[in-house]
Amino acid sequence: MIYEKQINVLEETQQLAMELAQLVEAQYTITLEGDLGAGKTTFTQSFAKGLGITRTVNSPTFTIMKQYEGRLPLNHLDVYRLENSDEDLGWDEIFYGDAVTVVEWAHLIEEELPKERLAIEITRIDEDARKFTFKPVGTKYVQLCEELLK
C-alpha cells in the first residue's frame, strides 16, 4: 500500500513531521529518500521537535549518526557516506534499542535495515511544495499511515 500527500508550504511539512512524531514508539524506523534539497533534514528537524527535542538538529553527514533525547531517544542517521561500505555501526543496537530511528539515504544500507519500516520519499515540486510518498512495510506502519493521513 502506498500513500501520498502533497504539501504546499514549509509549515505543512513541519506539521506533518511533528504529527508523525506523536505517533511513533521505540524501535520504529523511518527512512527518508529524496534529492539534495528535497527536505529530508528539515523533516527530521520538525520530527525531533515533535518528540520534544530542544537541541539543534542538523544533518549528521560527516558523523553518520547523531543521537538526541526527547519523549523518545532519536537516532538520526545520514548514511550518504556509507555507499559501497560494509561498515557495521551496530545496526541491531541502533534499530532495536529504545530509540526511534530516522535514516536519510537509506537505500545505501538496504540490507541492514529492519524488514518492517516506514519509507518516505520526498519529491521537490517547487521552492516550498513537496510530494510525500509513504510506503509502510508491516502492519504497525500501515496503521501509522492510516492514523497520520486520515
Account of the 3D structure:
The chain is of the alpha/beta class and 150 residues long. Helices cover 27% and strands 27% of the residues. It has four helices and seven strands, in the order E-H-E-H-E-E-H-E-E-E-H. It has helices spanning 10-23, 40-50, 91-96, 139-148, and strands at residues 3-7, 29-33, 65-68, 74-78, 100-104, 117-124, 130-137. The protein has a seven-stranded mixed beta sheet with strand order 1-7-6-2-5-4-3. A hairpin with a 5-residue loop joins strand 6 and strand 7. Helix 1 (10-23) crosses helix 2 (40-50). The protein is globular and about 40 Å long. The relative contact order is 0.25. The mean pLDDT is 91.
Task: Please summarize what this structure is.
By secondary structure, the protein is an alpha/beta fold. It has 4 helices and 7 strands; from the N terminus they run βαβαββαβββα.
